[in-house]
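Minutes, project check-in
Item: structure for the 401-residue chain
Input as provided by the requester:
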Amino acid sequence: MPSDTSSPTYRSLFRNREFAGLYAGFTLTAASGTLSGFALGTLVNDRTHSPFLTAVSMYGATFATVLGALTLMSVADGSRPRRTLVTLQCVSLAGVAAQAIPGLPLTARFLLLLVLGFFQSLATGTRLGLLAGAVPASAYAPARSLMNITSGGMSVLGYAAGAALLRYLSPQGVFLTAAALTGLGLAAVATAVRERPVRLPRRPGLRRTLATNAALFSDARQRALLLNLWVPNGLIVGCEALFISCAPDAAAALLAAGSAGMLLGDLTVGRLLTAGQRRRCAFALRLLLAAPYLLFAAHPPIPVVAVSVFLASAGFAATLPLQEQLLALTPGPARGQVQGVESAGRMAWQGMGAALAGGAAQYLTPATTVTALAAASLTITLLSRPAVSRARTAPDDMADA
C-alpha cells in the first residue's frame, strides 16, 4: 500500500482516478443489490407467505460467499485484479438480468442467488485488494469508511426506490432496473481502473487459498476479530430480515431507517474520529448494535421501532476499527484474500442470521425472535471482549495517522 503521512479528506480521494472508478462501480453494484434483493423478497413473500423463504431470498446469496472465500479467494491476490473484477462484474450482470425472466421458478431463482454469492466473494476480495494498492496507507480507513457510508446510503435509496418502483412496475421490471445499474458499474470499473501487478509469487488456486486461510485462522488475534466482525452483525441482520414478515406495509421504512443509521454511524466514526478513538469506542458500538432491538419484546409502535432500528444500525460502524486491526495484522501479499475472507464471512453470517431468524419465526412470534437474536448478539460481544482487546496491536502513531 502506498505510504502517505497526510490525512486525506473524502473529497481528495476522488482526485484519484482509480479510487473514483472503484467507488462508482461499488456504488452502482450496491444499489443494484438492494433493489434486486427487495424485489426478490417481495416476490417470494407474495408467493409463499413464508418468513423463512422471504428472509433467505433477501440474504441467501451470502451463504455461497463463504464457499468462494474458502476455495478460490487467492485469485484476489494471485491473478490480474482488474481483469478479474471486470469478468466477475459481467457474471453479476448476467445473474441479475436472469432474475427478470418472467415465470422463472423459485428454485432457479435461489440457485442464481447461490451462484452470484459465490462469485461476489471473489469480486469483493479483488476490489478491496485493488483499493489497498490504489490509495495511500493513511487514506485506507477513510476510503473504507466512504464505501461503508455509500453502502448505507444506497440501501436507504434502494429500499425507498424499490418500494416506489413496485407501485408501478412488476418485480421483473425492478430486476431490469437493477441489471442496468450493474451494467453501469461494470463500465465504471472497466474505464477507470488500471491493471496492477499480481501480488502473489505463486499461481492462485485451491491449495494457495487453503494455506493462507489456515494461517489466518491459526492466529488467535485474527480469529477474535473475525468472530466479532461476523457473528454479532449477522444476528442483527437476522432481525432486519424479519421486517417484511413483521410489518409488510412498514418494512421499507424500517429497512431505510436501518440503512440511514448505518450511514450516520460510518460517517461519524470514519471521518470524525482518529483510528485510536475508533478502536476505543468499538466495544460501545457493538453493544449499541444489539441493545435497541430488545425493545421489540414490548411490542412498541412502528415509529418507536424505526427510531430503535436507526440507533442500533449506527453500531455497524464498529466494523471499521475491527477491519483496521485485521489489516494491521495481515501480511501485504495476502491482504486481498484476507479482506475477501472477512467480507465473505460477514456476509455469510448475515445469511445464516437471516435463515436462523426466518426458521425461528416459523414457530415463535417475529418480535420474540428479534429479541432472542439481539440478546445472543450482546452475549457474544460481552464474552469475546477480552480476546478482542488482546488483538489491539497496531502502533499508536499509525493508529492516529
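Outcome recorded: DSSP finds 20 helices and no strands in the chain.
No further action items on this chain.
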